[in-house]
Structure formats: structure tokens, C-alpha cells
Amino acid sequence: MMPAAVLFGGSMHDFEIAQSGGHEGRAAWFRRGARAAFSIPGLILVSAFVGFAGLARDAGLTLAETVFMTGVVWALPGKVVLVGAILAGNGLPAAAFAVALSSVRLAPMVVALTPEMRTAKTPTWVLYALSHFVAVTSWVLAMDRFRHVPRPMRTSFYAGLGSTLVLGNMVVVAAVFLIAGRLPPAVSAALFFLTPMYFLTSLWGSARERAGQVAMILGLALGPVFHLLTPDFDLVAAGMVAGLAAFGIHLVGKRRHQA
Amino acid sequence: MTFTAIDAWWWPYVFILVAGWLATDFWRFLGVYLGGRISEESELIVLVRCIATALVAAVIANLVIFPSGALAGTPLLLRVGAGIAGFLAYLAAGKRVIVGILVGEATLGMGLLVFP
To answer: Are A7 and A40 contacting, i.e. CB atoms less than 8 angstroms apart?
Structure first.
């Protein structure tokens, strides 16, 4: 097992700088944030975006639409749900509802991250602007690395990290989109398989409690069932039924634990 | 009002902005606004995480069971088997996502070599 600092591309050097206080400017911390994107979690995220580009192209989206979606939505689950809704021919309200349901979890993530970056002098608009970069990977990296960043420099660090991840993956998506049509079928199949494989594993690992894992298993089982039963509303129906059931099991388990 | 309902260059972008950007950044902005007012541990947040996880899981299952494009030409059992193999490898490797992805892809690739 590698120590976390190696896994996340950190080093004692950064730590010593953090200890010595904020002599350096914001540009230096912005660059350090940008460099933090080049790490194992960053690499895994790139593989997920390679898969997403293939998925979006296959769903009939254009290069410009896919790159635009990558920049404005950013969080991968929201984008995969949006492409799923487009593939299913859902209308705008149903698609927006499904994406919103899949993205509610961004609010508590931002709630957890914002106090880590805020100082008495931080302008509010900076926090709103930076919140756009919040998705699983940048959030995990930031929460891990912030201990080594002086508090007043954390907004600059996160701006470097977030913008590098977003812009870098927009370039990745565009590049994959351009070559995807020329790949042999077996390679294309492997490309499309990246998205499910990424979420099958990362979703399980990011679950904070047992209920999240129960929700994942029920969602996997009910997704195809509702796809056949209610094709127009399958994602929202499967998400609500499986999510509420998992929450119910969580409440029953908790009550039994307390009794 | 589907993605292809209006035949104009701007319609897909409006669709992506409303169903994509608005539906995600709304929650991020709400998170900044709420600041420290809601706890990560509250039961409401647990419910929110359950529904979001189940919804993404449903999309994933549909991508494997009812795929489109190049994946549609592969046997269903191979796709499900590759997914299970990758997931078990991920667990066995101490929850390392990269191991799960590599084993899942390798299983799919070998299966395609054996049953082209």
C-alpha cells in the first residue's frame, strides 16, 4: 500500500512550504493546485472522460455540444444521466429533473468544502465561482491536500486544481471525440465500457454509509426493470424507488441498533 | 421538448444549459449559500445520497444491459461478467478503482477475442 501522500502526488516539500507560512504569492499556489491535478485520481478521471466522450458521440451529440456539456455541467454523474436522458428521448423537464436528482449531493459537498477555503476576507463571488469546480475528484483531492496549504491560499490552490481538471478534460473529450469514429469495433466497445466500470467501482467506494451501497445494488437491479416498464421515466423512477428503499432499510437498521 | 425537438443550432445548447448546467450548479450555489447550516451527517443528506447513488447506478446498469453503439454487438453475458469481474478485483485490491477498471476491460477484451 502506498502512503496517501505518494498516491495523491503530494510531497514533504509542499508540506514544509505550508509550515513556513504564506510568503509566496497566489500564482505559486495556483500552480501547485494545477500540479495536484496530475495524480492517480486525476488519471482515473481522465479515463472516465475518455469513456464519456465515446458515450456522448454515440448518443448523437456533436463535438461542440459534448465539450460544452463537459465545461458547464462538469460533474460526471450529472452528465452521464443527461446523456442517458437524451438517449431515452426524454423531454426537457424529465431530463432536468433526473439530472437535478443525481446532483443534489453536490450541495453537501460544497457545504463541507467552503468553510475550508473561506477566510474573513474572501469575497463571496469567489466562493460561488469556485463551487462550479466541485465534483467527486476535485473535492477528494482538495479535502486531502488542503492540510498542506495555508488557509488564505486555499482558494488559489483550488482554482488551479479545478480549472486544470475542467480544461484538461475538455481537451481530452475533444481529442477522443475526433478519433472515436476511426477505432476498430473492439476498441470502441472497450471505450464505452469505461463509464460503467468507473462508476461501478467509484460509486461503491464513495458511499459514506452502508445505505449508499444498498442504494447502489438496488439501483443496478431496478434500472433495467424500469427501463422496460416506464421507458420515459425510468431513471427518476428507479432512483426514487431504490433510493427510498435503501433509506428505509437504513432507518430500520438504525432503530434496531438503538433498541 | 426532447433534445432533437427543435431543429435549430441553439436548441441543444439551451437543453444542455437548462437540464445540465442549471440542474447541477443550482445545488453547488445552494451549498455555498447554506454554508455551515446543514450537517454532512443529517438524515436528510443520507436520503439525498441514497437517491443520487441509486439513480446513477440505474444509468450504469442500463448502459451495460441495453447498450448502444459498439458495445451493443457484444454478448450480454460477457458485459455482465466483465462488470462483475472488475468489481470483485476492485474489492480484492483494497478498493482501488484503477484495478477494477483494468480487470473489467481486460475481461471484456479477452472475451471479445474468444467470441468475436
So the answer is: yes
In this complex, do A208 and B53 lie within 8 Å of one another by their Cβ atoms? no
Q: Where are the domains of chain A?
A: 4-191, 207-259
Q: What element of type H or E holds A106?
A: helix A106-117
B-chain residues within 8 Å CB-CB of A128?
Answer: 29, 32
Q: Which of A165, A176, A169, A250 lies closest to A214 in space, CA to CA?
A: A250
pLDDT at position A71 is 97
What does residue A193 show for φ and ψ, rounded to 5 degrees? -75, -15
Q: State which residue of chain B sits closest to A84, comparing Cα positions.
A: B59
User: How far is the C-alpha of B8 from the C-alpha of B12, rounded, in Å?
Assistant: 8
From CA A199, how far away is CA B52, in angstroms rounded?
Answer: 13
pLDDT at residue A180 in the model: 86
C-alpha cell at position B111: 472475451
A197:B32 CB<8 A = no
Reported ipTM: the value is 0.86
Provide the grid cell at A15.
Answer: 508540506
Divide the 259 residues of chain A into consecutive groups of 10 and give the mean pLDDT of each group.
42 46 80 92 88 91 96 94 91 93 85 84 93 90 87 96 97 94 86 89 83 94 93 84 95 85
- Residue pair A246/A215 in contact (Cβ under 8 Å)? The answer is yes
B86-110 confidence digits (pLDDT tens)? 999 999 999 998 999 999 999 999 9
CB atoms within 10 A of CB A31: 16
Rounded to whole angstroms, how far apart are CA atoms B114 and B106? 12
Cβ atoms of A107 and B24 closer than 8 Å: no
**How confident is the model over B8-46, as pLDDT tens digits?**
999 999 999 999 999 999 999 999 998 756 666 678 878
C-alpha cell at A52: 464519456
Residue numbers in A near B62 (CB within 8 A): 84, 223-224, 227, 234
Which helix (H) or strand (E) segment holds residue A259: the answer is none
Cα gap A92→A73, rounded to integer Å: 15
pLDDT, residue A206, reads 76
- The residue in chain A having the minimum alpha-carbon distance to the alpha carbon of residue B104 is A197
